[in-house]
Amino acid sequence: MLILRFSSIGDIVLTTPVPRTLKTQLDAEVHYATKQQYQSILTANPYIDKIYLLEDKLSSFIANLKREKYDYVIDLHNNLRTQIIKKRLGVKSHSFSKLNVEKWLMVNFKIDKLPNVHIVDRYMQTVAPLDVKMDSLGLDYFIPDADEVEPDWLPETHRSEFVAYAIGAQYNTKKLPVERMIELCDRINKPIVLLGDKNDWETGEQVANFFTRSEASEDYEEKLAELGKKSLVWNACGKFNLNQSASVVRQARYVFTHDTGLMHIAAAFKKNIFCIWGNTILSFGMYPYRTKFTVLENNRVSCRPCSKIGYQSCPKKHFRCMRGIVFDFYLP
């Protein structure tokens, strides 16, 4: 069987029950096709027998797939490219419903016709005709041994206990402004590891520098201790690859995250998640799956959701969906 899902990090993690249940319930040979940049998410997955990577021309990619003589194609992406692949392969297929009309109505007219079904369970509906059912295991994420982060890779202040905060996201309207990230870190009040890619490094430095102790601050140390200020922020953005960041997430006591791939990786590890929502909403069905989570969002803005994905800046210019979030939580 061939599974098609070409992007992105979170979406691919959300599909992981599909290859697992196909393998364990049908004893099928499972192949997965995705883009080259997402290969590391699947490399160590024991339920996937072979990975095909879309790199250059679609014609040569399809020619390689044809040689496998698949019995079924499970299309979990369902776009023009996957429709071409299915037609060219000419075998039985089952396709994921993207609910584009329902999302369009919600974004443009705030008419909620979205089903109260998590996207993982909608992915599983794609294989229901094969008599495959969801099991009790949730999401999968397998870290290769070479990518496990050792405790001594972290600052000494963060080795016994720390909070992971995934500050990145593909779109800016999914991310807190820097000043609000600082406010959140102060509210967390524990050692914090900031996670993101190299594009998030500069933002991470702004946050971390706010909490950096120096000779100039020595006179304030005693007062900070009296106030119980324990936020020690280490900027790890760009220091780790995706699997290493996943290892840090797995070791964290709590995980704070925007609506991004590391949120779903944290859910795979059954972490206690505090998820921060800006222009997107939980009704789209992509909240943390089968794990404890707390939602931090601002429901007092009528323009939300403004997109099913996101923008690089707020279309209304006020960004109240993020600026108006109340950080109301308690960490023991």
Description:
The protein is an alpha/beta fold and 332 residues long. It folds into 2 domains: 129 residues, Rossmann fold (3-Layer(aba) Sandwich), CATH 3.40.50; 170 residues, Rossmann fold (3-Layer(aba) Sandwich), CATH 3.40.50. Helix content is 33%, strand content 14%. Strand 4, helix 5 and strand 5 form a beta-alpha-beta unit. Helix 4 packs parallel to helix 5 and helix 8 crosses helix 9. The longest helix is centred in the middle third of the chain and has 11 residues. The N and C termini lie far apart (46 Å).
**Total number of strands:** 11
Please identify which CATH superfamily of the largest domain we are dealing with.
Answer: Glycogen Phosphorylase B
* CATH architectural designation of the largest domain: 3-Layer(aba) Sandwich
What is the fold named in CATH at topology level of the largest domain?
A: Rossmann fold
How would you classify the helix and strand content by structural class? alpha/beta
Report mean pLDDT, rounded to a whole number.
95
Query: Biggest β-sheet: count, sense, barrel?
Result: 6 strands, parallel
Which strands sit side by side, in order, in the main sheet?
8-7-6-9-10-11
- Kindly give the count of domains: 2
Q: What is the C-alpha radius of gyration, as a whole number of Å?
A: 21 Å
In DSSP terms (H or I, runs of 4 or more residues), the helix count works out at: 13
CATH class of the largest domain: Alpha Beta
- Helix content range: 25-40%
- Characterize the overall form: globular
Portion in strands: 5-15%
Q: How far is the N terminus from the C terminus?
A: 46 Å
The arrangement of helices and strands along the chain is: EHHEHEHEHEHHEHEHHEHEHEEH
Indicate the low-confidence ranges by residue numbers. Answer: none
